[in-house]
UniProtKB/TrEMBL annotation:
Keyword terms of this UniProt record: Cell membrane, Coiled coil, Kinase, Membrane, Phosphoprotein, Transferase, Transmembrane, Transmembrane helix, Two-component regulatory system
Listed PROSITE patterns: HAMP (PS50885)
Catalysed reaction, written as an equation: ATP + protein L-histidine = ADP + protein N-phospho-L-histidine
Organism from which the protein derives: Paenibacillus allorhizoplanae
Enzyme Commission (EC) number: 2.7.13.3
Record protein name field: histidine kinase
Subcellular location: Cell membrane
């Protein structure tokens, strides 16, 4: 990255971004503070509204409780019960008497619009301020509210507009349903349904709406989000959960949050009435206030400050691009030749002209480049010789180690007079030596697997009926190059150290996996495994600081020589991003993975 980009990025990181983050943080904190403060204020308002609603229902309950136990009202139930089922239910005298009683008692309370009395067999009598049919007894029984009425056992149940489809949905019309008990015996006389028209709700919410009427809305909802009452009258019967797009959680007691309401950013506050004892089942009050009103002039000021800040940043950016960039371009021209050298172009030379200090600097730079070029060539030659010598040494360590074990197996077969098996093993050994004696360090993966298969066939003579093996490799990877004698030492380690102590059938799995631009070679056995103490000694470093055989204990050096040589050879040949990994657990077996790059040999 050149100096020009660095200065520009520094300008972004240390000036523009901090100012942007600071402004965003101040704006966010101010918004949260406004939201919290106004939310707290709204909660106080909703508490006051809740108290007024509580007193409204308390007064209505008190009035219905008072008349429900009167002899005149309870006498109506007894008279209805005494009427024969097949006869005329009520005489004209009874009807007039009951109507007079109800109008002189329950209907004297102005919010009560109508009253319906049901006995237990479904006979009913109704009276009201206006003419209209009462709700049939069968409809009451089939309503979902009927079960709640029975569970309350005489306590009132309040039903809001549209809460149950069997009841009315007029604005401000609430129903109180209850079971009526005999005052003396506490027997169930029947049921009473009162229809209320609470105009007082408008007065309650209006008293808290003053100058905010155009920006604030109050809703009275049930536990399912159904809107009973809207002070603006347009949302009654809708569901507030849909209007808030599911962001309102009625499970919380009292809280405020910002959300879009009818395509306008608003502050929404929820407050539970907590008057279930009055027969009101989990109703809540919701306040919705336009965020423009909540933020008020503060948001306008914040936007103005943000605009001024952006203008200042714009002029600062122009200054950086026009003036600072010109100075940087001068420096970049002086350093362009040095950049070429950094990219590896050692033929770069500075033009020498003039007699000032820049001339001496140019001559010194040219001399330095020449000297660096000579030193790099010498270091490269020495490093190539060193790597080649190390590879030859490591490979030389593997060959006698393998030959020793193979010849030992042939010797055992010769002692046992198994000439045919000795002949087969010698043939396979010749195949192995033929590949091992090739001058190339790398062979194809196909040749390596053939070499491994010959080795395993030799070992089958030695460990007869003691192990089985599988070799899997994708055909498209068989022509990839690999260091020869990579897999055989790993398999040999499984046979010599993993299977010798076991008394069950050993299994060896050799699998080649395509891993993108790399190849994974997996050698897995079900032998005795490696202890955690020994595994802890294998540190997989990115540099060849400690070969594997140097971290083994003295009595284990010979046993781990083949594995350590494979690990060191792979890392020397392919670099620090490749090598070998071991995963093992005592009694469960061992998996060794070798990672090599894809280096396909050109087809002959």
């Amino acid at each position: 990255m050149n100096l020009n980009k660095k200065v520009f990025i520094g300008f972004l990181l240390f000036i523009i971004i901090p100012l942007f983050v600071l402004g965003s943080a101040v704006y966010t904190v101010s918004q949260q503070l406004i939201e919290k403060k106004y939310g707290d204020l709204t909660e106080v308002t909703l508490q006051a509204i809740s108290r007024n609603i509580y007193y409204m229902f308390k007064e209505a309950n008190y009035f219905s409780d008072f008349w429900m136990v009167k002899d005149s009202i309870q006498g109506i139930y007894r008279t209805i019960d005494a009427t024969k089922p097949n006869a005329d239910p009520l005489s004209s005298y009874d009807l007039n008497t009951f109507d007079t009683l109800l109008r002189g008692s329950i209907l004297t309370y102005s919010p009560v619009q109508s009253v319906v009395i049901y006995n237990n067999s479904g006979r009913s009598f109704s009276a009201g301020r206006t003419s209209g049919s009462s709700i049939p007894w069968q409809t009451i029984q089939q309503s979902m509210a009927f079960q709640h009425i029975q569970e309350l056992n005489g306590s009132p149940l309040w039903i809001g507009p549209s809460e149950f489809k069997e009841f009315g949905s007029g604005r401000g019309e609430f129903y109180q349903a209850r079971m009526v008990k005999d005052f003396w015996t506490m027997d169930n006389l029947g049921y009473m349904l009162l229809k209320f028209k609470f105009n007082e709700l408008d007065q309650i919410f209006k008293s808290f709406n003053t100058s905010e009427q155009s920006s604030k809305r109050y809703l009275l909802i049930n536990k399912n989000g159904l809107i009973f009452y809207d002070n603006k009258q347009s949302l009654e019967g809708a569901n507030v959960l849909q209007l808030t797009q599911g962001k309102l959680d009625l499970g919380f007691n009292n809280y405020s949050f910002k959300a879009d309401f009818q395509n306008e950013k608003s502050l929404i506050s929820l407050y539970h009435l907590n008057i279930n004892g009055m027969g009101v089942q989990d109703w809540s009050v919701v306040s919705i206030t336009s965020w423009k009103y909540v933020a008020g002039e503060i948001e306008t000021i914040m936007k103005l400050v943000a605009g001024i800040t952006f203008i200042c940043l714009f002029f600062a950016l122009v200054y950086n691009l026009v003036f600072v960039r010109r100075i940087i371009q001068l420096i970049l021209r002086m350093l362009s030749s040095m950049k070429k050298v950094e990219r590896g172009d050692l033929t770069t030379r500075l033009e020498v002209s003039g007699k000032d200090e820049t001339t001496a600097l140019a001559r010194g730079f040219n001399s330095l480049v020449v000297r660096i070029e000579d030193l790099l060539e010498e270091v490269k030659r020495q490093q190539d010789r060193k790597n080649k010598a190390e590879l030859m040494l490591l490979q030389a360590q593997i060959k006698p180690h393998f030959l020793f074990n193979t010849l030992e197996s042939i010797n055992v077969l010769a002692i046992q007079n198994q000439g045919k098996k000795v002949s087969q093993m010698v043939i396979r050994l010749g195949n192995l030596l033929r590949i091992g004696m090739e001058n190339r360090e790398e062979i194809t993966l196909k040749q390596e697997l053939e070499h491994l298969r010959s080795y395993l066939e030799i070992q089958e003579f030695r460990f007869e009926d003691q192990f089985q093996y599988t070799i899997e490799a994708p055909p498209e990877l068989l022509h990839e190059d690999i260091l020869k004698l990579t897999l055989q030492p790993l398999v040999e380690n499984s046979l010599q150290h993993g299977f010798e102590p076991i008394d069950y059938m050993g299994l060896i799995s050799v699998k080649v996996v395509d891993e993108g631009d790399r190849i994974g070679l997996y050698v897995t056995d079900n032998g005795v495994g490696i202890s955690n103490d020994k595994l802890a000694k294998f540190h997989y470093k990115t540099e060849l600081e400690t070969p594997f055989h140097e971290i083994l204990e003295s009595n284990e050096e010979r046993r781990g020589l083949g594995v350590s040589n494979v690990a060191d050879r792979v890392r020397i040949q392919y670099g620090e991003h490749y090598g070998m990994f071991i995963c093992s657990q005592e009694g469960q077996g061992t998996t060794m993975k070798v990672i090599i790059p894809k280096r396909k040999r050109d087809a002959c």
